[in-house]
Every structure is written in structure tokens, then in C-alpha cells.
Amino acid sequence: MTLADKHIAYENDCRQMFVGQTICAVIYGELKYFADENGNNINPEPYYKTKYPDIDTLDHSVYFKTTDKTIYVFWDNTFICYGLKSKQVDLTEKTNEYEQKWDVSSENKWSQLIGQKIIDFKIIWEETWTSNLDGTNKVYTTYPQTFVIKTQNGRTIILSASELKRDEENEIYPLMDNLLVTTNMELARQLKIID
Questions:
Q1: What pLDDT digit, counting tens, does each position of 45-64 carry?
Q2: Backbone angles phi, psi at 68, to 5 degrees
Q3: H helix intervals, the chain
Q4: pTM of structure
Q5: Which of 2, 31, 111, 144 has the fewest C-beta atoms under 10 angstroms from its C-beta?
């Protein structure tokens, strides 16, 4: 696949945001589905677990707190709904009103990454198309489907704008308003999150 200048610039901006940073904490952001009329969460429980201990599913975002900044990764429509985006934010409990946040830094998949420096970053770009109902006027779009982040201890973090199929959870739907998060390369290949 040949990337346009806008794709190369986008990936370079993301790479510059990540590479060289040391991970201090990982925080998941899930939407407040059960909030009262004042926006208070009435059922504050995490929903990100799946049948796989090494993969989590998030309906919104992941925050990487580093020594210098907080990097916010979420699904977005920069290229098409839904691809990945990252940006630097000031993280507080009130960063936004629609998320509940869970510090998952001490969970097994993340504890091995706390204190590790990010040494590489790449985007797995995918191509999709849209058309009229009759199939004419096809428009092709290249979008950021998956972020692959490598740390100095040889571990890899995979973030994908994907969702597990609900019935068996053994396949994924790409291009979704959801994030799949794993550090297990074998599982990511098995589920076809990566090749």
C-alpha cells in the first residue's frame, strides 16, 4: 500500500508523541452508560474484560501517562469512522464528563511495561471503500486501523479500532467505535488483529 503525504505526516506525528517516552501508568476510559441526569455514574464498574485474560475491549480510550505527558488514544474520524488517533492531554478525573477511568497499571499485562521506555511506534494502515447503494462511485480511503508500540524490554502493545464478535468472541470486526488492547502477539495474530 502506498501512503499519501497526509498519512506519512500523521504517522510521524504519532511516532514523535510516543517514541522516547517512559510509561508511568496506563488508564482505561469507558463510557458512562449508567449515569443519572446530573452525569453521575450510578454503576461504576469496569466492563473491559473479555474471555481472554490478555485482551481488553474498550468502548472509548486508553491513556498512557509518561514522565513528560499523557497520551490519549481513542477512535476517531480523521480519515474515516472509525480509525485511531492519539493526542497529548492534561489528564485529570474530569478530562471529560462522559468517561469513567480505570488505572490498570498493576494488572499483569501492564505491570511489565510500567517504567519501560517506548522505542518504536508504527501504524498498520488499512484500506476500505464506500459507494452509492448501487455500488457506483467507489471512494477508497486509507485509515489507521492499529497502533503497534514497542518497549525497550522487547514487549509490544497493540491497540486496534476493532471489536470482538459477541457470540463466540473468536473473531473481530475491524473499523469499529471500540478499542481492542493486548500485549499478546500470538493472540493478536490468532484473532487477525495483526498479520
A1: 888 999 999 999 998 899 99
A2: -110, -25
A3: 5-18, 108-111, 185-190
A4: 0.89
A5: 2
